Amino acid sequence: MQTSLITEVDALSHQQVELCYHCHKCSAGCPLLPEMTFGPDRLLRMVQVGDGDRALRSRDVWLCSGCATCATRCPNDIDISAVMDALRQIAVATDVPAGERDALLFHRLFLGVVRRLGRSHEAAMLGLFKVLSRVPIYRDVPAGIGLFLRGKVPVLPRPSGAASEVRRLFERSQ
Amino acid sequence: MRYSYYPGCSAHSTGLEYTLSTEATLRQLDVELEEIEGWNCCGASSAHALNHRLALTLPARNLALAQKAGGDLLIPCAACYNRLKGAELALRSNSEARAEIEADVGFSFTGQVRIRPLLAILHEDFGPQRVAAETRRPLSGLKVVPYYGCLLVRPPRVAQFDDPDDPRLMASLLRAAGAEVMPWSHATDCCGAGLSLPRSDAVYRLVGRLAERAREAGAEALVTACPLCQVNLEMRQPATPRLPAFYFTELLGLAFDLPEARRWWPKHLIDPRPLLRSHNLAD
Q1: A169 CA to chain B: closest CA distance, Å?
Q2: Same domain for B143 and B72?
Q3: B141 touches chain A (CB under 8 A)
Q4: Are residues B263 and B146 in the same domain?
Q5: CATH of A5-93, one of 2.60.40.10, 1.10.1060.10, 1.10.10.10, 3.40.50.1000
Q6: Nearest CA of chain A to the CA of B8: how many Å?
Q7: B110 touches chain A (CB under 8 A)
Q8: Where do the DSSP E strands lie in B86-142?
Q9: What is the C-alpha to C-alpha distance for residues B205 and B207, in angstroms, rounded to an integer?
Q10: Is residue B107 part of a domain?
Q11: Beta partners for B75?
């Protein structure tokens, strides 16, 4: 898998990672760099040289917020946020353990709720995240209560009329 | 004026006051909003992280509904806007992806629906002159910084909105409503977005820096056009005194002297009323 990683990433992201000449603009502008181990530039290098395992296991791919600052500044027009998406998708498809377990959990719960309801539903998602994540259960309780009291996390979802069609989109995407 | 309307999932939850102020402000401008029936989640930041195909088909289904409804599609949420534009770009530029999306969603893309963010509609179809003409209660002395966040402007080939490095639409509308817009360099910095739950520490750091820079610029509040930015700015702002984060529609509605405005302020996690009272803008 490692030797073909760049081919796979290029195909999934519709980008050409080989064009990167490592000017470091992406890492210089990345708002999450302080939390990362390598940063986007070094991840691109790992993809180029076939060091896929390190890239896919890194917490960095899960820390990318998708802000696309890198994609906007890249002199070679590589949409690096799309590359990060491709790395996450490959990591999940090949069962590589996520470097930020709770970030993956969040995405899974979010999509799980959308799959069932057709729309997102904060109360369900926040509740499940509280129970299943490693974030201490008491954290954010005051903020959660604040949102609830302001009517911002309705307990019951509004019917969307889209649930069955959305479920079909999920099935087709597997 | 009539628009198709895609409210997005946060419209009736965390972004409640964005929805209330959007609908009230547009009513004042004689806009008729036609919510597209049976719309679904755009996939937000999770679909594209895990599933490339869903990241295109979820928003494309909404595009199909909007196509059936006809007219321009108005989207208040920056993230929903970005996802729908991303699907549109794939449909336009990649015939393979297009065939796949059309088959999954069961529609045929015509490319005739204009997907437009609310901010651009207000600026292009109404403009600062109309805002000034509707202003009965100028926001005199209220010092704000516009905060666009990421997804309205980036990546530019998807978002096609204003100047991605130096957007100006919001400032010009806020100035027309009488607010004092302070110059700053962080209008398109990231707030941390969906990391707010799994890595709140990182989001506190990013939001803390934004608030600090806003204060340095002399602002008393931030103004956003994105429900996720707004909730992060108010929920993850560490230092005191904390700056409230308004939706730009709330400030326009306030300047239009809409009676509904008083119902928006209690929805904030950071109460903006002390600030508004100090400028005689709230009772």
Answers
A1: 6
A2: no
A3: no
A4: yes
A5: 1.10.1060.10
A6: 9
A7: no
A8: 115-117
A9: 6
A10: yes
A11: B117
Q: Is A81 in Cβ contact with B40 (below 8 Å)? A: no
- The reply to whether residue B195 touches residue A89, judged by beta carbons under 8 angstroms, is no
ipTM higher than threshold 0.90: yes
CA atoms within a 13 Å half-sphere pointing along the CA-CB vector of A164: 1
Contact yes or no for B202 and A150 at CB 8 A: no
pTM, two decimals, is 0.96
SS3 B223: strand
Same domain, B131 and B265: yes
Whether the CB-CB separation of B214 and B234 falls below 8 Å is answered with: no
Angle at B53 between CA A60 and CA A14, to 5 degrees: 65
- Residue by residue, pLDDT tens for chain B (283 residues) are 999 999 999 999 999 999 999 999 999 999 999 999 999 999 999 999 999 999 999 999 999 999 999 999 999 999 999 999 999 999 999 999 999 999 999 999 999 999 999 999 999 999 999 999 999 999 999 999 999 999 999 999 999 999 999 999 999 999 999 999 999 999 999 999 999 999 999 999 999 999 999 999 999 999 999 999 999 999 999 977 899 999 999 999 999 999 999 999 999 999 999 999 999 999 8
A72 touches chain B (CB under 8 A): yes
